[in-house]
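Appendix B. One record, verbatim.
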Amino acid sequence: MELLILTSIGNSYRRTVNTANMFLHLEGDASLKMTTMKDRTVSIGTALLRERQRQVDEILREYGIDDSIEDIADMASFPLGTVSPKLAPNLAYEGMELAIKAYNSIRENSGEKITQKDKVCDIEASPYDCCYISVDDVGVKHQKEHREENAVKDKKYVENTVIHIQAGEISHCITAVGMDIAFRELLAFLLVNELLENKRLIFLTDGARNIKEYIEKIFSFREYTLILDWLHLEKKTKEFMSMAVKAKSKDEKRGIIRDTLRMLWVGNVDEAISYLTNLKAKNVKNEYRLKELTDYLTRKKPFVPCYAVRHMNGLRTSSNIVEKFNDILVARRQKHNGMSWSVDGSGALAAITSAKMNNELSTWLRDSRISIKLAA
C-alpha cells in the first residue's frame, strides 16, 4: 500500500491502479479499483490531517490559545525570547561601504544607486539568526457534489495554502485547505520548535492582501519583517509597463522598463514613482495603467527592501521556494485539464505529499505516528 500511495502522489488514481493491476496481473473482480484507491488515499490523508490538527490544538492550548489565534491577549505563557527577542545585530553600513561604492560607481542615474542607509541597516547580517517563512496559496478546480445536466460551469476553487519554513538547517512545509488552518499550524510549529525565540522573523510573500492580514493579526505580539518577493515585483512592474508605456523602438521601451526596475532593485520606490510620473507624454500609452502601477508601488513601498544589498550578502530576495513547493504539493498533481477536487480529496492528497516532503510519510503509513515537534 505504501508504494501505491507514493505512486498516487505523482500520478492520477486511474494510472496508479492500471499500473498496479498490470504488474500484479490482477484482472476482473480481483483487480484494484480506482474508487478503492482514491477512497483509501483520502482516508489516510484525512487521518493524517486530524492527527496534525489534534497536536496543533494541544500545543496552542499549552500556550493559552484556544479556538482563535487572531487575538493573542495573554502572552504570560510565551517565553520571553519569543515576545521580546534579543536579535543579532543587523548589517553595519560601514562594513558595506566599499561594496556599495563599487555598485554605485557603474550607475549613472542617481535613482539606480544605493543611497538609503536605513534600508541597508535594516537587513539581517546572517541567515542563521533568522527564521524565514514563505507563504503562498493555490486554487484547484472545485468538484460539485451534484452535477446537473446542462448546468453552467462555475469557477469555484479549493484553495490550498502552502507555507515553507527555513531556519538554519531546518526546512519544513505546511499545507492546508484554508489559510486560517495553515497559520494556526504555523504558529504551533514555531512555538513548539522554539523557532521564535531570539530569532529574526522574516516573511516573504507575493504581496497578497489576505496573507499580509493574517501575518499582521497573528504575529502582532512580536517584531517581524515582511518582504515583497522580487520576482513578483519585477513581473508585476513589467506587466503594467507593457500596457502603459510606448516608445519609438523596442530598445527605447526596454530602456524605460530597465531603468524603473533598477530603481526598485535598490529599494528606491519614491524615485521609481517620480520617474514614471514624469515620463514624457510621447512615452505614455495608457495613463490609467500607469496610475495603477504607481498606486501599486505606493502600497508596496513598506515591503520593498534594498534587494541589491541582500543579493550581495547572499540573502533571500524571493519567495520562489514556496512556489516550488506549491507546484510539488498541489499544482503538479491536481491542476490538469478535466480534473476537479472535493475539499477533503484535495486537502488529503496535499497532506500526504507534504508528509513525504517532510520525511514523515513512511512513519505515518507504518506506525500511524507523526510529530509536529522536530527531533532534537
